[in-house]
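Exercise 7. Given the components listed, write out the predicted structure of the assembled complex. Treat all entries as one system.
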Amino acid sequence: MQTLHVELGDRRYPIFIGSDLNPQELLEPYIKGRQVMIVTNTTVAPLYLDRYVRAVEALGKTVETCILPDGEKYKNIEHLTHIFDALLKVGFNRDCTVLALGGGVIGDMAGFASASFQRGVYFVQVPTTLLSQVDSSVGGKTGINHPLGKNMIGAFQQPQVVLADMSQLKTLPPRELSAGLAEVIKYALLGDIEFLAWLEEHMDGLVAGDEKLLAEAVYKSCAHKARIVANDEKEQGERALLNLGHTFGHAIESYLGYGEWLHGEAVATGMVMATDLSHRMGWVSEADLERTKNIISRAQLPIICPKIPLDDFLGFMSHDKKVLNGQLRLVLMKQLGQAIITKEFDVELMKQAILANQDIV
Amino acid sequence: MQTLHVELGDRRYPIFIGSDLNPQELLEPYIKGRQVMIVTNTTVAPLYLDRYVRAVEALGKTVETCILPDGEKYKNIEHLTHIFDALLKVGFNRDCTVLALGGGVIGDMAGFASASFQRGVYFVQVPTTLLSQVDSSVGGKTGINHPLGKNMIGAFQQPQVVLADMSQLKTLPPRELSAGLAEVIKYALLGDIEFLAWLEEHMDGLVAGDEKLLAEAVYKSCAHKARIVANDEKEQGERALLNLGHTFGHAIESYLGYGEWLHGEAVATGMVMATDLSHRMGWVSEADLERTKNIISRAQLPIICPKIPLDDFLGFMSHDKKVLNGQLRLVLMKQLGQAIITKEFDVELMKQAILANQDIV
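Answer.
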C-alpha cells in the first residue's frame, strides 16, 4: 500500500492506494461523529456495500445507506434531493459523515450533499472506478449537472480520507477501465513526458487490469494532480490545466446527452482535438499527434466522436465553465507533455480540429 | 452613513448603513466580473428593482433579473432551481455576481445559489427588511428549507459588500419591522445589558420607524454579530449563542408551517421560552423575565405561541441543527445579558417553559 498526502493546510488528507485494503483499520482515525451515511448505487451496492457497512459498524457507528440508480443521467438535483431526504429521515445532524462508495457520479453527488447538508458535514471517499480513483480523489470538486450544462452546480469539498482499492477494479467493465485510463493519459500529456513513456511501455498490462500497474498509475496521477491542486485549490490559474480535453469533451457529452458516452471517452476524443489544434497551431509535430492518438487507441478509447453539427458543438463549448468574460480559453499543448491555458488560438483552426476528428457519416 | 467592516481575513467586507445610500457609488468597487444577476421577489421588485438595475448598468455591467414569489414557503429547492435556470439561460459564467435584493429569504436563496453556481461566484447583499439587515448581513449563512427542517441545506458564503439602506424600510409592513426588532433585542439579551437599556429608552421611536434610531440599532446589532462571527465563522462554539430563542422558534415555525408566523415572531416567543427556562433553572429573576417579556411586547411581538402538542414541539426541536450527538443543546441565560450554550438543563422544566408560553385554548 502507498499513501499520498494531499497538502491543503488544515484540510490535509491521505489517499491510501493498494489492493485488498482493510477499511475498518484505515477509516478508523478519519470517521468523525457517530453517524455515517453510505451513499452508493444499484451496481456497486450488491458488490461492496456490505463490506463497508460492516467495517463502519465495527467502529461503533450508526450506519445508514442511500442507494441511487447508476449513471451520469441521475447526477441531477432530483437525485441529490434523495440524499438529503435520506439524511433527514433518519435524523442525522451536522456531526455526521457522508461516505461515497462508487464512481465519479456518486463521489460528486455525495460530496456536494456533504458540503451543503446542514451547511457542511464530514466526507469520506471510496472510489470504486479507475476514473474516480485518479480524478475525483483529489481536488474537492463536487456537484451535479443542469440540463444546460455539466457540473454547473456544486461546491469545493475536501474529504477526510480516500481509499483507492485496486482489487475493487476487478468488477469494473473494461469500457470503464479504459475511461479511467483517459484521465491517466491526460496527466502524461499535460505535464510528464516520462510518464507517457511509462504508459507506452505498460499500456497492455493496464488494459488487462494488472493491479500493481494500476496502483502505480493511480499513484502517479494523483500525485500529479495533488501538486497542482495544492498550488491552486479554487482553480484561479494552473489548476485549469487539468481540463485538457474537457472543453471539447463536455461539448461531446452535452450533445450526445449525459450517459451516452462515458466521461473518460469524451475526454479522450477531446484530448485528440486539443492536440490536433495544437498541431495546427504549429506547436505539436504530426508525429506527436500520432503518438497521442496511438496511446489513446491502445487504451481502447475513441479518437473520433460521432458527427455533431459544428454550431451545436461550438454552442456547448461556450457554455463550458472555462469561458471567462465571454472569451473561450482552451488548454492546448506548446509541445507534447507541456500544456498551457490560452485564449490565443485561431478559431478557424479550432473548427478544423473539431471536424477532422468526427465521424464523417 | 456608518461603515462596519466584518473581519474575516481575505474575505473581509464592509456593511454600509444609512439612509438614501447611493448604490452606484457604493457598489462600484465591489462588483466583480461583467455580469450581474439581481435576485429579488414580487413584492420588492416594483419598489426598488429599477433603482438597482440602473445603478449596476451605469457601472457598465450586463444586468439580468430573477424575480421569485415572496415568502418563506418558497425557500425550497424548487425555487432555488429557478435561480440556476435564470443564470444558465442567459449564459452567465463563473465570473459573475449574484446580487440579493430583498429580505432574509432572498438573501439566503441568492446566497446559496451564488455559493453553488459553478461552485461559487461573487455575492452582494442589499437587505430590504430590518430582519435581514441585522441578521443576514453578517455571518454568511445561506440556504434553503427542507420539508423536514429549516435551513437544512446550504453553505457559508460571504458577500463582497452589504448595503443596508434605512430609507427602504419605509415600505416595510409594521409586522415585519417588529420581526426585525426581535433579532435586535436578541443581541441585547444575549450579551449587552446596556444595549437593552438603550432599546427600552428608544423602543417607541424604533417601532415608529425613526431612521436614525433604526440605523443605530442595525449598526450595534451587526457590530455585535460581526465580533462573534469573526471569532467563530463556522459555528464551532461561541457563534451558537446567536441561536438564542431559535431552537424553540424553529419548532414553532416548523409546526405552523413556514410562512404562517414570521421568523422574527417565532424567535421572539422562543426567546421568552428560553428566558422562562433560565428563570425556572434559577438563573434569571422573575423581574428580569418580566423585563424580557416587556421589551418584546413593546416591539409589537408575540410572547406566547398558539397551542402546539408537546410531543410535536419536542420532535421539531430535536430536528434542529443545534442537536449534537443526539443531545439537545440550548442557548439559555446565566443572567439577563449573558447567554450560554448548555446541555445542562432540566427537561421537565423545559417542558414547563414551553407549555407556560403557549395559548391555552
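Discussion: Residues 83 and 179 of chain B are 27 Å apart (CA to CA). The radius of gyration of chain B is 20 Å.
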